[in-house]
């Protein structure tokens, strides 16, 4: 899809509110934002608040799980290169803020944002796709980007201590195959999407392949990489 750049490999599917991001990193417009010629420090993201709800809480912070719609435009001619409402059957995008799952400029632009808030942000090339651009997404080199963002939800990040404890039913500080299998079933039931019967087993196997580094059949807190506060 135009505008979606996997950092490592394409996501298999949207597995619900948080699970895809819980153990299988999902890339959304994600490429490393590299400073071109050392200019990043001099360039900033310009943020224009279009709508601010009276009740602005909670405000987004690094590590939070966000749900948002956004449209992307080229500043040079105003042409639209991305629209989240035309992707994934129009569902808003879920991603973790501040960990590189979106371009650096969006990670910056969506900090301290509250549910219901709308922003128009302008992102310089050094905090987007830089000199290389992104041909598949129709983004030329050295392109300044404009995004119109509507944030729907701010939730506890998927790799928080609380999330780990939620899955760790027996409290032994490690996640078993049974515990993660049960969590998968709960998430699948919650989002209500139809999936091939083999999806559960494939995802479960992939989770352990990517996270059980010592091969002992469990995912420890260290392997799960639990983040606290601003350590994410």
TrEMBL record:
Locate the EF-hand domain: which residues?
155-190, 199-232
Q: Which UniProt keywords apply?
A: Calcium, Endoplasmic reticulum, Glycoprotein, Isomerase, Metal-binding, Repeat, Rotamase, Signal
User: Which intervals hold domain PPIase FKBP-type?
Assistant: 63-155
Show the InterPro entries listed in the entry.
Answer: EF-hand-dom_pair, EF_Hand_1_Ca_BS, EF_hand_dom, PPIase_dom_sf, PPIase_FKBP, PPIase_FKBP_dom
Matching CDD domains: EFh
Question: Taxonomy-wise, where does this protein's organism fall, top ranks first?
Answer: Eukaryota, Metazoa, Chordata, Craniata, Vertebrata
Q: Which Pfam families match?
A: EF-hand_7, FKBP_C
Name the UniProt record assigns to this protein: peptidylprolyl isomerase
What's a single GO MF annotation on this record?
calcium ion binding
Which top-level group of life is the source organism from?
Eukaryota
Q: Name one GO cellular component term.
A: endoplasmic reticulum
What EC number(s) has UniProt assigned to this enzyme? 5.2.1.8
Per the UniProt entry, the signal peptide is 1-35
Reactions accelerated catalytically: [protein]-peptidylproline (omega=180) = [protein]-peptidylproline (omega=0)
Q: Does the keyword Mitochondrion apply?
A: no
């Amino acid at each position: 899809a135009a505008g979606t750049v996997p950092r490592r490999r394409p996501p298999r599917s949207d597995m619900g509110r948080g699970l895809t991001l819980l153990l299988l990193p999902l890339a959304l417009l994600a490429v490393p934002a590299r400073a071109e010629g050392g200019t990043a420090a001099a360039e900033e993201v310009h943020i224009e608040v279009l709508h601010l709800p009276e009740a602005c809480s909670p405000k987004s912070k690094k590590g939070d799980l966000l749900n948002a719609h956004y449209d992307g435009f080229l500043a040079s001619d105003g042409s639209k290169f991305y629209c989240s409402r035309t992707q994934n059957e129009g569902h808003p995008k879920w991603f973790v803020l501040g960990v590189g799952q979106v371009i650096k400029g969006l990670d910056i632009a969506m900090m301290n944002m509250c549910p219901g808030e709308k922003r128009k942000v302008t992102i310089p090339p050094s905090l987007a796709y830089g000199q290389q651009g992104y041909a598949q997404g129709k983004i030329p080199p050295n392109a300044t980007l404009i995004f119109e963002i509507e944030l729907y939800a701010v939730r506890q990040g998927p790799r928080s201590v609380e999330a780990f404890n939620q899955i760790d039913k027996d409290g032994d500080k490690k996640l078993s195959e049974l515990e993660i299998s049960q969590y998968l079933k709960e998430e699948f039931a919650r989002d209500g999407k139809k999936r091939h019967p083999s999806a559960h087993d494939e995802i479960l196997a992939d989770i352990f392949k990517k996270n059980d580094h010592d091969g002992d059949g469990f995912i420890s807190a260290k392997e799960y990489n639990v983040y606290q506060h601003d350590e994410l």
